[in-house]
Structure formats: C-alpha cells, structure tokens
Design goal:
The protein is mainly alpha-helical. The chain folds into two domains: 288 residues, Rhopdopsin 7-helix transmembrane proteins, CATH 1.20.1070; 48 residues. The chain has 13 helices and no strands. Helix 2 runs parallel beside helix 12, helix 4 runs antiparallel to helix 7 and helix 10 crosses helix 12. The longest helix is centred in the last third of the chain and has 67 residues. It is flat, with a radius of gyration of 34 Å. The chain starts with a helix and ends with a helix. This is Serpentine Receptor, class E (Epsilon).
Length: 359
C-alpha cells in the first residue's frame, strides 16, 4: 500500500495525462473487440469463454480506479497549493484501515487495483480448473452447459482477489510478498496445466490402445480429444501471458533489487502503471495472435475490409471512364452532324454551277 501511495503522489504532466487518455481509449476499443470475438466463436466451452470475457470486462474496474486516483490527485494538488496540513496516515504513509478509510477515494482505488491484479493472477488457475471439471465430467461435458462451474470459479476468483487486496492494503504487505504471490500463482498454473494435459493424453492413449477390452463410448473419446485440443490452443496464449506478467514484475522489482535511486524507481513504476492500466491493449492482441481461430478471423476481416476499399476504388474508376468516353463521343458526334449539315449546301451549290455551265 505504501508503494501505491507513493506512486499516487506523483503529479502527471500534461503529456502524461494525454498518453493515459489515449491508452484508455485504446483499451476500451480492444475490450469491445475482444468480447465480440470471444462471443462469436464456439471453439471453447461456454464456461471457459465466460471466464475470458469476465477477465476482459473487469478492465472497467481499472478505469474506475484511475478516475478515483485522479480525484485524489486533484484534492492533493489543492492541499499543496493552499498549504493545508494533512496528517492522514493513509493518504501519506499508506497505513490504512478498512473501518476508517473505507470511503476514501485513494483507499477504494487501491482496493480495486489490487483486486484486479489478483483476479488476473487467479484467472489461469480458474481456466485450468474448468478443464479439470471437463476431465471429470468427460462423458457429457460438451453437451451440458453447467453454468454453475463458471459461477463457482468466478466466485472463488473474486474471494481470493478481495481477500488479498484487503490484506495488501490494510496489513502492509511488502512488495516482495506480492512478487512471491505472482510467482506462486504462475508456477501453480504451469504445474496444473502439465498435469491436466498428461492425464487426458494418458487416458486417451489407453482408450485407443485397449478399446476392445475397455468399456467406453465415442463421446468420451471425443471429449478427451477436445480437452487436449483446447489445452493446445491455450498453450501459446498461456506462455505469452506468463511472460508478460513476469516481465512487468521484473520491471518493478529489478530497480529495487539493484538499489537504484528513488527517482528512477518512481519513473519506472509510473511507466509500468501506464502499461498495467491499459492491459487490454496487450491482452487482446496477444489472444488474437496466439489463438489460431481468432487470428484467422481478424485476418479475414482485415482482408475483406481492404478488398472492399480496393473494389470501391475500381468501381469509382469504372464510373469515371464511361463519362469521359461519352463526352468524347458527344463531341465527335457534334462535329459529324455539323459536317453533314454543311455538305448538302456544298452539293447544291456545286450542282447549280454545273447546270449553269451546261446551259
């Protein structure tokens, strides 16, 4: 919490405010695009798709967090300009209590920020837990919706995120504790992923090798293949997200580990804060790039858009060409008509002269 308060006391420049506004606008667009793509495809089970959509829509929590933080900075600027003494330990030292500061904008902002962070950390585990349920209910998981699984996972993620956010803001959790929590969550996700994939692959191999002696149905075989297919589709996305989270954690932790000066640490945290609050700008393109069906859909839309523009330009040139040709034809036709109108007179005058000479 002390780190969050220290960063919150940094007054952004006009350029910084502009950059944040642009990033928030891009984040909003990416969130809408990501939700639209996720709703369009059925390659993932509904529960898994709902977990991903919930993660995207939770970005609005960061938007509210940033608005509250701007309100706090505005009040802080007034205190500084009017030289008002404020001895609030939560505002200046990060020593907050839930009962005393539950209505303070800075405390609510911190709660929402850490809630989002821990919710994101719990999302890979939640997705893999959904795959565990798919393995347990292997007979009819694809046929049945079982929305209670998504509800249970979503509730568990929120409980974990709320507990950790309150603990971080009120109990004075250190930055080292947060880093260890991140590493523990990511390591647990990797272990669960490996175990789920191994179990499904082993069971599928056993069914294919011992299908004559093993009592199973085609639906079980299909579900096991779907589990492995889903895990394969998620693999690159998982690895990319883990790399991004580790990179962000190291970017915040290395300046402290290297014992750099305070100004450098605050500058690095400011830029990382921009990246953190514009999470959809990195999350949605990563999903599009790493998930094959999403990537093909976006490329198809881009090609279609470019093709329509190209065709429209062709149509415009085709429309212009007949007009030019028509004008030229009309001009030549007028000249031809004038020549025809003048030729009878010449012929008559010529015939009159001939008759006169004959006479």
């Amino acid at each position: 919490m002390a780190i969050f308060i220290r960063n919150s006391h940094q007054m952004p420049s006009n350029a910084g405010v502009f950059v944040q506004a642009v990033l928030f606008l891009l984040s909003f667009v990416c969130t809408v695009v990501g939700v639209k793509i996720a709703l369009k495809f059925t390659i993932f089970h509904k529960n898994q798709r709902n977990i991903f959509i919930a993660l995207l829509l939770l970005w609005f929590e960061l938007l509210i967090c940033r608005i509250l933080l701007w309100a706090f900075k505005y009040s802080l600027a007034i205190e500084i300009s009017k030289a008002i003494d404020c001895d609030d330990e939560c505002h200046h030292l990060g020593r907050c209590s839930f009962e005393k500061n539950k209505f303070d904008p800075i405390f609510i902002s911190a709660i929402m920020r850490y809630h989002y962070m821990f919710f994101v950390l719990a999302t890979p585990v939640g997705i893999l837990v959904e795959r565990i349920f798919a393995t347990v209910f292997v007979k009819d998981y694809e046929k049945e919706s079982r929305y209670w699984i998504f509800g249970l996972i979503f509730f568990s993620q929120n409980m974990f995120a709320c507990t950790m956010s309150v603990f971080t803001t009120t109990m004075g959790a250190t930055f080292h504790f947060i880093i260890l929590t991140i590493l523990g969550s990511l390591s647990g996700s990797a272990v669960i992923y490996a175990l789920v994939e191994y179990f499904n692959q082993r069971r599928l191999t056993k069914l294919e090798n011992e299908h004559r002696t093993t009592n199973y149905t085609l639906s079980i075989r299909y579900q096991l293949k779907e589990n492995l297919k889903t895990l394969k589709l998620m693999r690159q996305f998982f690895i990319s997200i883990i790399v991004i989270i580790i990179a962000m954690g190291l970017a915040n932790y290395l300046p402290i580990l290297l014992k750099l000066d305070e100004d450098t640490i605050l500058t690095v945290r400011t830029y990382m804060d921009y990246i953190f609050h514009s999470n959809p700008v990195f999350l949605v393109p990563t999903a599009i790039f790493t998930i094959e069906h999403y990537r093909k859909y976006v490329l198809k839309k881009v090609k279609l858009g470019l093709g329509m523009r190209h065709e429209s330009r062709k149509m415009d040139t085709r429309k212009l060409r007949p007009q030019i040709a028509t004008k030229e034809i009309d001009t030549f036709f007028e000249i031809f008509v004038k020549q025809l109108e003048g030729s009878p007179r010449k012929m008559q005058s010529g015939s009159f002269k001939r008759n006169k000479n004959i006479m």
